[in-house]
Amino acid sequence: MKVESFGLTDRGLRRHHNEDTFLVRDDLGLFAVSDGMGGHAAGEVAADLTVREVERIVEATTKSEEDTWPDDWERDLSVRANRLLAAVNAAHRRVTAAVQADSGLKGMGATVVALLLDPAHGQLAIAHVGDSRAYLLRQGELRLLTSDHSWVHEQVIAGLLTEEAARNHPLKNVVTRALGGLQDPAVDLAEETVQPDDVLLLCSDGLNTMLEDRDIVATLLRMRSLEAAGRELVTEANRRGGMDNITVVLVRLVT
C-alpha cells in the first residue's frame, strides 16, 4: 500500500493566535497534531517543540531492530509502538526543559496525537496525550481510536454528563493529561491493522467540539480528495462558530 496525506491548520474565528501545529511525513509514515496551551506565544512554542521532537526521535530510530532495542523499550510492544512512545516521552521532556529554561513560558504545555504507519505491512501505532483525536474511516463507518484525557470526558464516562452537555460545557477545554508538566504523563498507546482505502483523521479539539462525528463522517464520505475534505471540515467548523484553533491531518491508504 501507498500513502496519501493532507494537513491543514486554521486559527478559527475566536482566537487571536493559532497554537496548533501538525506534522505530515509520508516518507516516515509519521503524522501528528499538537494543540498548545499557555496563551500568547507559549502554546505555539509548546506545540512546535512537541511535533519537532516527535519527528526527531522517530527519524533517529528508523533503523531500530528487535535485537538492538534500547534497555528502556517495552518488550510487549512492537518496535513501531516503542518508537512512538519514546518520541512522545522525549517531547514531554523537551517542553518541560523549555519551561525550566525560560520563566516566560511557565504554564505552557501541549496535547499530542501521533501515528506511525507501516503501509507495507498494514500496521500502525497511535500514541496520544490530551484531547486531540484519531479516527479511522473504513467502509463508510467512522471509529474513534483515542479516548480524550479531559475533565468533561471523565464526567461522561462516570455518567455525570451527557455527550451533548459535554460538547457545550464551559470546562470542555480542560485536559487531565498534557505534555510539559512536572510529572511524566501516561501515554495511551494502541496498535491497529489497516487496509486499502482506510482513511485516518487526526484533529485538534477545535474540530470535534464544533462538529459531531456524524458531520465528520458525512464530509469524509463525499470527499473528492483529501485536500477537499480537509478544507471542508475546517470551513464547516468555522461556520458553526470556530471557537478554537482547528487542525486536521488526513491519511489515506491506496493500492
How would you sum up the major sheet? Answer: 5 strands, antiparallel
Task: Give me the number of helical elements.
Answer: 7
CATH architectural grouping:
4-Layer Sandwich
Question: How much helix, percentage-wise, in residues?
Answer: 25-40%
Number of domains: 1
CATH class: Alpha Beta
- Please state the overall shape, judged from the principal axes of the Cα atoms: globular
User: Mean of the pLDDT scores?
Assistant: 91
Give the CATH superfamily.
PPM-type phosphatase domain
Radius of gyration: 17 Å
Rounded to the nearest angstrom, the distance between the terminal CA atoms is 5 Å
Residue windows where pLDDT falls under 50 for at least 5 positions: none
CATH topology: Phosphatase 2c, domain 1
Give the structural class.
alpha+beta
What order do the helices and strands follow?
EEEHHEEEEHHEEHHHE
Strand order of the largest sheet: 1-10-9-6-7
The tally of strands reads 10
Strand content: 25-35%
Keywords, please?
255 residues, alpha+beta, Phosphatase 2c, domain 1, five-stranded antiparallel β-sheet, 7 helices, 33% helix, 27% strand
Task: Explain briefly what this protein structure is.
33% of the residues lie in helices and 27% in strands. The chain is an alpha+beta fold and 255 residues long.
